[in-house]
Write a structure and sequence with these properties.
Immunoglobulin-like; 5-stranded antiparallel beta sheet
């Protein structure tokens, strides 16, 4: 050791004693210590040195007290800290203490996707947050249509949501929760599948002449999808129903907005029963009988 080094350490204080640290919140640590046993002079201030690990830069802050708040830290992260006293020279470093900051709300879940499973259910999947800021305890999936919103909670990264409205578009967003709920994911849109439609409404049959009638109707009150076909069945006789398994005649009408069809070539002075049903891509709905 050179004469300069000997003189330096002669006036440098020993290391602070009894260093302790505890987290105040997710971004702040409080560190406390006791004055060195041997100060070798007047302690002008203390230097708190801290970092995350050996691969990160050392950071410092000064304090004239035997306590300090280290702020601006990363949530749910281990920090290693030590303290040294300064007189006319920097003293020995104390022993290291390691402490973890508290948890905080996470960032948003990633890569959310949604697709329909049936006419009343959807499947939603996502990836955990890139910055969890703690232990993700649950996810909340919010699904909205119009002014109606609902949610479901799960510990998984996927969920099937059932009992939805048929052929309805939903906005879906996912939130992760640690000790607090974080930001919402991107919003995705998903539409439940089509289903068979309800029966057409207001079916009327009127005579045009002795061999022709006109059939009119209204669109089903519940379409459950895109109407692709109206089908009229008629049969001789006053019966309670007509099906395509008996001697009925079937007339297929592609969807239109007139809701009107003329049937000709009938037998004069003959009673006919007429029914109509509606189709979507999924199939036929219930019959309406006149």
């Amino acid at each position: 050791m050179t004469a300069f080094q000997q003189a330096y350490w002669l006036h440098a204080p020993e290391h602070p004693q009894n260093v302790t640290a505890l987290p105040i919140n997710s971004t702040t640590i409080q560190i406390n210590w006791v004055v060195p046993t041997v100060t070798n002079g007047i302690v002008r201030y203390y230097i708190v040195v801290y970092r995350i690990d050996s691969n990160t830069d050392l950071m410092e802050l000064n304090s004239t007290n035997t306590t300090a708040l280290v702020t601006g830290l990363t949530p749910f992260t281990f920090y290693t800290l030590h303290v040294l006293a300064v007189t006319v020279a920097r003293g020995e470093a104390s022993e290291n203490v390691t402490v973890q900051t508290n948890e905080a709300a996470p960032s948003a879940p990633l890569d959310i996707t949604a697709f329909n499973v049936s006419s009343t259910s959807i499947n939603v999947t996502w990836q955990p947050p890139m910055i969890p800021n703690g232990i993700v305890r649950s996810y909340r999936v919010v699904y909205t249509t119009g002014s109606t919103a609902a949610d479901v909670t799960t510990t998984n990264t996927s969920v099937v949501i059932a009992m939805l409205e048929i052929f309805t578009t939903y906005q879906v967003q996912v939130f992760a929760t640690t000790v607090a709920e974080g930001d919402g994911s991107n919003i995705v849109m998903v539409t439940t599948d089509e289903d068979t439609p309800g029966p057409p409404g207001d079916l009327f049959v009127n005579e045009i002449n002795s061999t022709a009638i006109v059939v009119t109707w209204e669109e089903p009150g519940i379409t459950n999808g895109i109407i692709t076909l109206y089908e009229i069945l008629y049969s001789v006789g006053n019966v309670t129903t007509v099906s395509d398994n008996d001697n009925s005649v079937i007339v297929g009408i592609t969807t239109n907005t007139s809701y009107r069809h003329v049937i000709g070539g009938l037998d004069p002075y003959t009673m006919y029963t007429v029914v109509i049903r509606t189709y979507t891509r999924i199939g036929a709905g219930d019959l309406t009988v006149f």
